[in-house]
Design goal:
Blueprint lengths: L1 H36 L22 E10 L5 H11 L4 E5 L7 H9 L3 E6 L4 H4 L3 H18 L7 E2 L12 H6 L3 E2 L4 E2 L9 H11 L6 E6 L5 H16 L2 E4 L2
Parallel strand pairs: 1-2, 1-7, 1-8, 2-3, 4-5, 6-7
Helix pairs in contact: 2-8, 7-8
Length: about 250
């Protein structure tokens, strides 16, 4: 009988995990569907969705932004590429992923990159449940950053999925003293199984006629094609005369 209850408890736990994973997959599917049916696809967001970034009128500017790190498999390699090509970027981090990767976060800051708040959990169902839940999630992420970087005082934020998913929450973020940044160009590395060449083409296409360019990329787990595309993306914008800046 004891074994029966033990197995039953284990089965319930596995079922709960499966339900949570299913819910997250469905949210991702709905997001992908929205991107397919609305004019915001491929990162082409209206100006109102991304607070303005001042750029020198005499030069074109690009802001490389990376979401969903730090990770052991991707973030250090992104940092290596940026270092070798002399480029700075902005990293919007997931708070719960910092533990065990403190040195990666320290390296990111030490090498002159900007660090922004993305989320603590990246669980849409939780963080977008209410204004209070969102602000709590942001605060937890900021606290996780400050636990490693005590002098961190930035209050820049990126909504998971973009602020267009929850425009009614933008005011709450502003009221809490944060400035949020969406993007107006994207390599699409979180939207499909693209090759490195396709990611490069997506980045170039969606950045056309944009100044400044806020380019969305990811440094989460499994972004091997992003790593392959990144040097070519950087070289293209360098050759086009863009200056790389951080938020």
């Amino acid at each position: 009988m004891k074994n029966f209850f033990t197995e039953f408890a284990a089965a319930r736990a596995e079922y709960a995990i499966a339900r949570k994973l299913y819910r997250m997959k469905m949210l991702s599917f709905l997001l992908a569907a929205l991107l397919c049916i609305c004019p915001l696809a491929c990162g082409t967001y209206p100006a109102a969705a991304a607070p303005s970034v001042r750029a020198d009128a005499s030069e074109r500017t690009i802001f490389l932004t990376f979401d969903d790190g730090p990770t052991d498999s991707t973030t250090p390699k992104v940092l290596d590429i940026l270092r070798d090509l002399g480029v700075k970027a902005t990293f919007f981090v997931i708070g719960r992923q910092i533990r065990g990767r403190e040195e990666i976060l320290r390296r990111t800051a030490a090498e002159g990159h900007a660090i922004g708040i993305h989320t603590y959990t990246h669980d849409y169902g939780t963080i977008y449940h209410s204004r209070e839940a969102l602000i709590e999630d942001i605060g937890r992420c900021r606290a996780a950053i400050r636990a490693v970087l005590p002098r961190y005082d930035r209050k820049i934020y990126r909504f998971p999925g973009g602020s267009f998913l929850c425009p009614d929450l933008r005011a709450a973020v502003k009221a809490a003293g944060y400035r949020y940044y969406d993007w107006n160009a994207s390599a699409g590395d979180a939207e499909g199984n693209y090759s490195a060449e396709q990611l490069f083409e997506n980045a170039v296409r969606t950045a056309q006629n944009k100044d400044p360019v806020l380019l969305l990329l990811h440094d989460g787990v499994g972004y091997r094609q992003t790593l392959r595309a990144l040097p070519k993306i950087i070289s293209y914008f360098q050759n086009e005369g863009y200056r790389f800046k951080t938020l």
